[in-house]
Amino acid sequence: MSAEGTVPDVDELARRLTKATADRTSIGRISDEAPGFDLATSYAVQRRLRQSAGPQVGWKLGLTSRAKQVQVGVDEPIHGFLTGAHALDLGQPLDTSVLIQPRCEPELVFVMGSDISGSHITAADVLGATSGVAVGIEVLDSRFHDYRFTTPDVVADNTSAARFVVGAPVAVGGIDLRLVGVVLEKNGEVVATASGAASMGHPAAAVAWLVRALAEDDEGLRRGDIVLSGGLTAATPVAAGDVVVATVDRIGTVSLACR
Ligand code: 0L1
Ligand code: MG
């Protein structure tokens, strides 16, 4: 970055975030150095990270629930990408030693059964294009000190994405995703609860928001993509030895052991 307040260099910022991940060392907010750092530039940084991130397996929404927005002090939804390197298999432990400050949150995960794109997509369209919905646990790991960031900071940091695990998908027909109960447990204790409506009123509405946002870049969802539709509760910090369990009524249960 050149002088204070000037538009940051996209390549330099992508390098800085990549290094923070590799070094397992958090960094200061970009927005503190460059008040002119805006959302368009931050999504450009994220696109640069995506170019070198390996095969993409899907997308994620962030900050779609009030609980999440309050936790990090950012009050608008954002989106990021997921690659195979982010994925943990069922039963695979989370290696916390390669992360900076991991947190876990429960997600409803959409598995797309057909391509969907466009700037007028609704929740009903999303449900029609969905082959199944699963319970997921997302592991976040902000590359910024203490999860302190503005919207452009966290967008550039690919919405704090680090790892995720997804359970077996079930067909959505007949299940009102607004009403499903969500329980997040850590080491046998309930740490947070929610219902599906926590994510923008309906998790499919959150995915529709994503599709409309992607349309601005002439992108969309493809058959087989998975979409993390947004953390339904505040995220809980985890360390080696912890076991996190996410349960969603009528959808299933997923657990994640941390070592
Ligand atoms: O997936 C999310 O909701 C996280 C978005 C980024 C905010 C955070 O790190 O909690
Ligand atoms: Mg999330």
From TrEMBL:
This is 2-keto-4-pentenoate hydratase. InterPro entries: Fumarylacetoacetase-like_C, Fumarylacetoacetase_C_sf, Hydratase-Decarb/MhpD_sf. Residues 101-254 form the Fumarylacetoacetase-like C-terminal domain. Transmembrane segments: none annotated. Keywords: Lyase. It comes from the Bacteria.
